[in-house]
């Protein structure tokens, strides 16, 4: 009798254990099929769900996802290249949907903010847009250059820009169009130089951007091949000129901290993800 009870208890335990195990395995799979962000409500018994968090974490002192978070939070600054061990991680991040989802979160917030504004409608309310990795994506270039794991090459990047083939970042274009509907005027403020103006205008138009108030580019490259000053100084200086001219910067969006640091930043700033390069 005692043996029968023990056997029954053992069977109950095994059944419970089996269903718990099944839940651990099945739940994340169902979420993946739904196409939604993978946020597993249980600690997976086997391994992290995303390859980006698993193998790479074990390979180096700092996992690549932690490195990327450090970059986005502006704790990791002044870096020249993506760490070599993270090339695959960044590539998967950029191409695998995660980047687009992160960008959509930023733009959803920006649209909600813009729609909440009590706008004066006086034609003086503007929104500052960066161009590279904000309005246009240079992913086709960076995919061929190690997703930022190889040192920036100004010559080859300029050749790519000269093609005028960069696709729009669809999330940013969605914000851009909504702002036009709301009566907020877009202003492009970019580290691209004046000699790239024509092709930049062509590229923006090809990708569905129109109706901007201004396109502000840096002066052409100096004789020494270098531009003077930091991106923060240049961009905040240009924003100051806009405010001095009577415009109100209701929003400012870019992929670099140097797009959104420096007075006047704008009433609200939005930082898009960019783990491929750093501009200080
Ligand atoms: Mg940019």
Description:
The chain has a single domain, classed as HAD superfamily/HAD-like (Rossmann fold, 3-Layer(aba) Sandwich). Helix 11 (257-260) links the parallel strand 4 and strand 5 (269-271). Helix 5 (98-116) packs parallel to helix 8 (170-182). The chain has eleven helices and five strands; from the N terminus they run αααααβαααβαβαβαβ. By secondary structure, the chain is of the alpha/beta class. The model is unreliable at 11-34, 37-41 and 43-60 (pLDDT under 50). The longest helix has 32 residues, at 2-33. It has a five-stranded parallel sheet with strand order 3-2-1-4-5, with helices on both faces. Residues 130, 132-134, 254-256 line the site of magnesium ion (MG). Magnesium ion binds at residues 130, 132-134, 254-256.
CATH architecture assignment: 3-Layer(aba) Sandwich
Class by alpha and beta content:
alpha/beta
Overall geometry comes to globular
Query: What is the third-level CATH name, the topology?
Result: Rossmann fold
Question: Given this structure, which CATH class is correct?
Answer: Alpha Beta
Share of residues in strands: 5-15%
Order of secondary-structure elements: HHHHHEHHHEHEHEHE
Cross-sheet strand order for the largest sheet: 3-2-1-4-5
Can you give the helix content as a percent range?
40-55%
Low-confidence stretches: 11-34, 37-41, 43-60
Would you count the extended β strands for me?
Answer: 5
Task: Please describe the biggest sheet, giving its number of strands, its sense, and whether it closes into a barrel.
Answer: 5 strands, parallel
User: What's the alpha carbon Rg, rounded to whole Å?
Assistant: 24 Å
Mean pLDDT: 85
Heterogens: magnesium ion
């Amino acid at each position: 009798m005692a043996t029968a009870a023990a056997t029954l208890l053992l069977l109950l335990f095994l059944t419970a254990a089996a269903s718990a195990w099944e839940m651990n395995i099945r739940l994340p799979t169902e979420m993946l099929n739904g196409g939604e962000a993978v946020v597993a409500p249980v600690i997976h018994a086997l391994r992290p769900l995303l390859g980006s968090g698993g193998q790479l974490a074990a390979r180096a002192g700092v996992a690549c996802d932690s490195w990327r978070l450090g970059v986005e939070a502006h704790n990791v600054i002044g870096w020249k290249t993506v760490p070599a061990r993270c090339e695959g991680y960044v590539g998967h991040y950029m191409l695998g949907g995660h980047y687009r989802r992160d960008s959509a979160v930023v733009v959803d917030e920006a649209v909600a903010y813009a729609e909440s504004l009590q706008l004066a409608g006086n034609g003086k309310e503007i929104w500052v847009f960066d161009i590279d990795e904000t309005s246009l994506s240079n992913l086709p270039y960076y995919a061929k250059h190690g997703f930022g794991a190889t040192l920036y090459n100004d010559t080859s990047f300029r050749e790519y820009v000269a093609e005028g083939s960069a696709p729009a970042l669809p999330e940013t274009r969605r914000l851009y169009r909504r702002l036009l509907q709301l009566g907020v005027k877009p202003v492009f403020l970019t580290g691209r130089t004046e000699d790239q103006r024509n092709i930049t205008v062509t590229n923006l138009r090809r990708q569905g951007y129109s109706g901007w108030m201004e396109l502000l580019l840096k002066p052409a490259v100096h004789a020494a091949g270098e531009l003077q000053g930091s991106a923060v100084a240049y961009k905040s200086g240009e924003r100051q000129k806009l405010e001095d001219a009577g415009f109100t910067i209701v929003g400012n969006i870019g992929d670099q901290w140097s797009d959104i640091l420096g007075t006047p930043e704008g009433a609200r700033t939005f930082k898009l993800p960019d783990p491929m390069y750093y501009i200080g």
